[in-house]
Specification:
Elements lengths: L1 E7 L2 E12 L2 E12 L2 E13 L4
Antiparallel strand pairs: 1-2, 2-3, 3-4
Amino acid sequence: MTDETETEDGFQVTCTVTAEETGGGTLYRADIVVSMGEDELYGLQTAKYVSEAIR
């Protein structure tokens, strides 16, 4: 798991990426959150599967 945070103009953007190995490839998941102070303003979740055949 990787976790990165950037702050600019009072906004904080955090991206957490996890990788899950499967029998035929890797499933990558990313959770992205934009916040200001204690308030979460926006959240986004995405995923991508990368087959071993593509690597």
